[in-house]
């Protein structure tokens, strides 16, 4: 029997990305610095980069076929940058993209490095949107692919606006705003339904989550690419 591929899910939060890989046929191990009791798979609590460095040093990284990393994104997120500029806040946020990439390169493994739209310094090898999967959120996310590649899927036209208030204007639309509070933002049940996430009802975890449909697609694409290499 062929062993199932295993993915290491770094900066895992509550497991939106992890569930997608699981549904694509992977075994999943997560790591996050915060306590994540709702994470649905094997889980290590600790600093993700320290843990990855430990796995590289010990050779335990060789258990994995793929590494996925979603480092903190507030420094480059378009939503945060735009809000700070409009409000004159200009807060300082951590940016772990470069050190994360350096360690991902050191693993010698294929990897996926995820960030939202904005100023984050990653290659946009893939850009995914909820409309590609018929979801109730747009939630654009960009993915840098290391040591493997796949084609960018077509980005369908959005069916309308995101529901809620934006710059003093209220709009209705087929998508909910799965971030923040007030201004017509989505309720917890609305976010769960829109992203197909049922295992957590924590608002903070839902606002940070990648819809599992994204990484299910990525997982299938990776497995297809790997089969083609060894065919």
TrEMBL record:
InterPro entries: SAM-dependent_MTases_sf
Presence of keyword Transferase: yes
Protein name: DNA methylase
Keyword Transferase: yes
Taxonomic source organism: Streptomyces anthocyanicus
MF annotations from Gene Ontology: methyltransferase activity
Keywords, sorted A to Z: Methyltransferase, Transferase
GO biological process annotation, one example: methylation
């Amino acid at each position: 029997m062929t062993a199932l591929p295993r993915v290491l899910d770094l900066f895992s939060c509550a497991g939106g990305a992890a569930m997608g890989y699981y549904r694509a046929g992977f075994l999943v191990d997560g790591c996050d610095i915060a306590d994540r009791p709702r994470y649905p798979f094997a889980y290590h609590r600790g600093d993700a980069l320290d843990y990855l460095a430990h796995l590289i040093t010990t050779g335990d990284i060789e258990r994995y076929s793929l590494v996925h990393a979603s480092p903190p994104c507030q420094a480059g997120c378009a939503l945060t940058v735009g809000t700070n500029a409009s409000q004159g806040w200009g807060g300082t946020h951590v940016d772990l993209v470069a050190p994360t990439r350096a360690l991902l390169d050191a693993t010698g493994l294929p990897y996926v490095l995820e960030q939202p739209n904005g100023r984050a310094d990653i290659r946009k090898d893939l850009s995914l949107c909820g409309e590609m999967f018929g979801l109730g959120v747009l939630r654009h996310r960009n993915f840098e692919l290391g040591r493997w590649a796949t084609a960018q899927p077509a980005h369908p036209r959005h069916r309308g606006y995101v529901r809620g208030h934006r710059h003093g204007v209220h709009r209705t639309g087929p998508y909910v705003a799965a971030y923040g509070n007030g201004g017509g933002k989505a309720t917890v049940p609305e976010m769960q339904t829109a992203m197909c996430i049922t295992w957590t009802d924590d608002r903070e975890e839902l606002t940070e989550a990648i819809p599992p449909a994204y990484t299910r697609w990525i997982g299938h694409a990776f497995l297809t690419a790997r089969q083609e290499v060894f065919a």
